[in-house]
Amino acid sequence: MSTTLSSIIAGSRVGPAARTYASTDPSRTDERVADVALGDAGLFVDACRAARDAQEAWRDVPPPIRGQVIAGAGRLVEANKERLARIVTREVGKPYAESLGEVQEIADTCAFFLGEGRRLYGQTVPSEMPDKQLFTFRDPVGVVSVITAGNFPVAVPSWYIVPALLCGNTVVWKPAEYAASCANAFFELFVHAGVPEGVLNLVFADGEETFRGLEQALGDGLVDKVGFTGSTEVGTWIGELCGRHLQTPCLELGGKNPMVVTEDAELDLAVEGALFSGFGTAGQRCTSLGTAIVHEYVHDEFVRLLDAVTRAATVGDPAQDVLFGPMINERFADGFETYLGWIDPERHTTYGSTAVGRITGKEPREGFTGDPDAGLFYHPVIVDGVGPDDRLFRNETFGPIIGVATYRTLDEAIALANAPGYGLSSAIYTTDPKKAFAFRRGIKAGMVSVNNSTSGAEAHLPFGGNGRSGNGSRQSGIWVLDQFTRWQSMNWDYSGRLQKAQMDVLEIDADLGFLLPEDES
After folding, report:
1. How many Cβ atoms from other residues are within 10 Å of residue 222's Cβ?
2. Residue in 199, 107, 200 with CA at minimum distance from that of residue 158
3. Cβ-count burial 373-412 (b if 16+ within 10 Å, e if not)
4. pLDDT mean over 324-346
5. Residues in domain Aldehyde dehydrogenase (predicted)?
6. Residue 450's closest CA among 209, 304, 293, 273?
């Protein structure tokens, strides 16, 4: 039997809701994981008000003590690593090995930020006048609203929630309803680590009600910062809404991530990187490989090798050792069907599997494990011959699909890599350092890998994109502290008199016309 999950505001579960959502196992869609009670806009506003009420007391907890709460959360995550990973695998279909890595990312994030509780440094700055000192301080922004997608249902939320709490903010978190069990488990671990009631609030709601609630909460002055991970389209709406209130949200959006393969690249390594970044998590990552841009000299061999390893890869039941499992839910499967419709048989050649589309008993895939008719499984597909005029080239294609384009010069490759207008992640495979640095200089992405895939983040490195991939905000590492704190400056004059800056300043005369005598020897 499935569990019924409801929102948690100020430490209390919310009662029955008028609407529910059935969260199912995407590898066995007839198995219900949880019934999710969906709140409305008013419930979201109530959560923001509870967070506002709790914020001053949490702010007054010394930062090193807040760091100890984060440390406790990290230890609890590590102690529950396998259990949480199994929930992730069951609810969103991520292969178990990847789910373990995702949970580890929460622990790594906690490990990094627990120390930041002792390093929320300001600065003592010398004044231009005597008997006066200047200081700077980091203050929490206040109430943070976090809205996350479900493809990384626990790791990505930690990128927001951990530093936000560490900095003294309170949080209202709206996870994807199709990842409600993952969110509920995450929430429980943080509460048992000592996060007080009202400091972290969990709201289950659909997108429309969430947007309405956020609009009202911003209008009522209940939200000071918004963090959003999701599609570029929705991110644009949230950015517009926050802009009306003179707020800058933290937006982590989609990507069409390029991988350039040069003529001198180690092809086996490039193929390995393409396989993982293109098909890991069934291509349902914002950092998934979009287009491999391959030098004409090695194009045919690259496609041959990538086709071979893709065909040999095991796909299917995410509880097993597989390259990837199912699509997360029906919405993503429907979207992927749309992207597959962009393949033009007259211009494109497909590789990678025995068919294109849904894996079923009638359209099987060799090496599949599990019951193909039970879940949302799709054939991996490599589409050769894509170019700037193709929708497959220009748009994010959330699913197990890799486009392949060809280039002649590195400048052409960089132009192709930038053409879709996204700017999240990128990669180049080369043995020539000059090419690596030329690519770094020319690419507009926020993240660059050399001889590594487009996917993969570490907890102490800035994560984020530009252009259609975000508004330049960064998550992870010390850089995210600027998202969840505001700088305050203070000047303290103890001279006993009013000293006016730029006016009552000691001036020292200098003879700026002085020249050394000419050398007459």
Report:
1. 24
2. 107
3. ebbbbbbbbbbbbbbeebebbbbbbbbbbbbbbbbeebee
4. 96
5. 18-489
6. 273
Spatial separation of the C-alpha atoms in residues 514 and 484, rounded to whole Å:
52
pLDDT at 266: 98
**Share of residues in the chain with pLDDT > 70 (%):** 99
Q: For residue 324, what is the DSSP state?
A: B
pLDDT recorded at residue 270: 98
* 252: annotated active-site residue: yes
Q: Strands 447-450 and 466-467, how do they pair?
A: unpaired
Query: 25 - beta bridge partners?
Result: 28
Q: Considering the candidates 252, 301, 458, 507, report the single residue annotated as catalytic.
A: 252
- SS3 assignment for 24-45: EECCEEEEEEEEEEECCHHHHH
Yes or no: say if 187 and 39 are a contact pair by the CB < 8 Å rule: no
Q: Residues 340, 335, 105, 2: what is their CA dihedral angle, to the nearest 10 degrees? A: -130
For the segment 272-297, what is each residue's pLDDT rounded down to a tens digit?
A: 999 999 999 999 999 999 999 999 99
Q: Average the pLDDT over 378-390 and give the result.
A: 97
Tokens standing for 7?
């929102």
DSSP label of 286: T
> What string of DSSP letters covers 7-19?
-EETTEE----SE
- Check if the beta carbon of residue 402 is closer than 8 Å to that of residue 303: no
Cβ atoms 185, 157 nearer than 8 A:
no
Give the type of residue at 87: I
pLDDT at 521 over 70: no
Token pair for 30: 């007839």
